[in-house]
Here is the input.
Amino acid sequence: MNEYQEPYEKEISLTELLFFCLKKWRWVIAAMVIVAVLAGAWKYQSTVQSNQAKREAQLLAEEDGETKETEVISNPNIEYYNLAIRNLQQEMDGMREYIDNSVIMQLDPYNLATGNLSFYLNVEGAREADRNSLITAYEDFVTDGRLAAEILGSDRDISESELQYLISFESEDIPVMEENYVLSDGSSSSQIQIAGIGESRPNVFRIQITAESAGKCADYMEAAKSALTDYSAQLQEQIAVHTVTLLAESQTERIDRSIQSYQNEVLNAYTSTFTQLKNMQTELETVVEEEGETIVVGETVTYDSPVKEAVKFAVIGLVLGAFLAAFILVVIYLMSGKLQSTESFREEFGMPLLGQVTKAPAKKRLFGFIDKWLQRMEEGEYADITYEEQLKIVAANLKTAVSREGSMKKIMLAGTMNREEAEAFSAQLASELEGISLSSYERIIFQASALEDMGSYEGVLFLEKKGASYTKLIKKEKALADDRNVQVLGAVVL
Here is the structure.
């Protein structure tokens, strides 16, 4: 393995990478402009050609008599919304009418007038199957709406469906709470003895009727008793001979959570429909604004504006150009192998950094204030130090390094940067050093004679250029000095 090869993993400073890209802002803008111009010009030309092709096709169709007439029709999307809004409005009107006029919706679920009718079915001597059939027949009469129709008669203050909802039938075995019942038909009376409190009487069924008022409840109960008597007479011949006797009759006020839940469900459904109607109206306004109330059907030829299309693609080109330039700059930063960062100079190259000197450009550049602003952001207050002061700092650090290693009189200047710039800097640096002799700038990697002369010097100082010197070459020249036992004082980065 090459001992001067950089390791595969290298720590990259994101801050340095960001400022590297920002300093190349002219490249980025140039790339954005070039890509935008190319994209806009291509789209302009393609739009012109497309419009020309459409014109030629239209002329050819007119010559052949194939031109189709266009037709203006109503927008189907708007018709759909209008139909949906009408349906929702009708649904809301029906729900509103039901809420306002329905007896069930006017009931107070915490104060309901309720009547209970308990009947005893006497099927003495009949078969068990006949008794069950009779119970089933009475249950059907109560629950299928016939009882509600008989109760209402000609009185239609409430609909049959609503009254049926307020009537319930119960024929389950009911525990006995008394030991006997007294049955009376007006002319004679008898007792039914039922042994054992808590036992069941399977021949008893109960009808519960709820009404909007106590008076209505009483009327419904009287009508129900009459209807049950008439229906009992019909069942005498159809099923079996029996008698139906009223055991108990009561009227109370009660609370019914199921009716409250039903009322809440109806009100919530009305609110939900109202919200849906408002949403549909809002969507209709949006469709009318975006699509219009009519559309054109038929063969129509539309021509795109070349300028508008070119501007759109130019804007897209600006964004793509910025991304393209940034990508290329990042690749250059990562793959160039040049010295880009000095944050970890000692750890990377094994020698101290005696100073970093930034010289202001000799000529003013267009929008140079942006470069100064970026430099100020990157270096902070160090950017305010003048070039001469930076040179003195390097000289002071060099004197300290020389004194640390003993008395040195001859120091070799070496490096991999441009010779002219390095010699100009060394001449200024020599004026700040007294009693120390600096050699002319040598590139020991590329000059065998300079490499041979290295042994005659007491120490070596490397001059490198940020963004120009290669890290591999810096490591190599450091190793060459170590191999010849020449003391490396450090490096200065310009």
